Amino acid sequence: MSLRLVRIDDRLIHGQVVAGWLRALGAERIVIVDDASARDEFLREVLTLAAPQGVPVEVAGVADGAARLIALAGTPESVMVLARNPRTVLALRVAGVPIEVVDLGGMGSGPGRRRLHKTISVSPDELRELRELEQLGTRVEIQIVADDRPIPFGSVDPRN
Questions:
Q1: 3-class secondary-structure state, position 133
Q2: How much is the pLDDT for 157?
Q3: What is the pLDDT of residues 131-145, one digit of tens each?
Q4: 7 in any annotated domain
Q5: What are phi and psi for residue 8, nearest 5 degrees?
Q6: pLDDT confidence of residue 20
Q7: Domain housing 80
Q8: Is residue 89 within 8 Å of residue 7, measured between CB atoms?
Q9: How far apart are CA 42 and CA 85, in angstroms?
Q10: Catalytic residue positions?
Q11: Minimal CA–CA distance to 119: which of 3, 37, 24, 7?
Q12: What is the pLDDT of residues 66-119, one digit of tens each?
C-alpha cells in the first residue's frame, strides 16, 4: 500500500516530519488533509515550501482529500498523509480511505485536554474519535519520531 504513514500532528509539516519521517519512510509525496489549510492560499503555499525540494505537497479538504487518497492508495507511489486532528482521519476512514494505522504525533495541551503521552494531549471528543477509529479496524499508535518504538493507544487510553 502506498499510504506509508497517516499521522495526526497539529503542526503538520515541521522539522521532525521532514528530517525524520520523510527520510525513514522514503515517502515521495505529502498529502495534507485539513479543511482550514485548504481554504487558506497563503498557508497552502507555506506548507508546500516547507517540504524538501522535489517532494510534492498537496493540501486538500476532507472531501477532496479522501478521493485523492483512495486514488493514491492504489498506486506504487509512497505517500505520507498529515492531518491536524482525529476528526479528519476518522472522516477519511469513514469515506473509504484504507487506513490501517494512524500515528499520533504532536497534539498540544490546553484547557479541557488530557495528557496521554509526552507531547500528546486530547480533548474528550478526540479521545472518542480515536476509539471510533479503532472500532473501525484502524490501529492507533503513538510514535513521536521514526526511531521510537510504536506505543499502542490502548496502553495510554485513560479508560484502560
A1: helix
A2: 67
A3: 999 999 999 999 988
A4: yes
A5: -95, 120
A6: 83
A7: 3-155
A8: no
A9: 21
A10: 14
A11: 7
A12: 999 999 998 999 999 999 999 999 999 999 999 999 999 889 899 999 999 888
Q: Report how far residue 101's alpha carbon sits from residue 121's, in angstroms, rounded to the nearest whole number.
A: 19
Measured in degrees and rounded to the nearest 5, phi and psi for residue 30 equal -115, 130
Q: What is the CATH number of the domain that holds 137?
A: 3.40.35.10
Q: Which three cell numbers stand for residue 123?
A: 480533548
Nearest partner of 140 among 111, 107, 109, 113, judged by Cα: 107
60 φψ region: left (φ > 0), alpha (ψ -120 to 50), beta (else): beta
What nine digits make up the cell of 12? 503538520
Contact 151, 142 (CB under 8 A): yes
Q: Hey, what amino acid is at 135?
A: Q
The whole-angstrom separation of Cα 42 and Cα 151 is 35
Cα gap 37→160, rounded to integer Å: 35
* Count of domains observed in the chain: 1
Q: Which residues pair with 101 in a beta bridge?
A: 139
Task: Identify whether the C-beta of residue 89 lies closer than 8 Å to the C-beta of residue 133.
Answer: yes
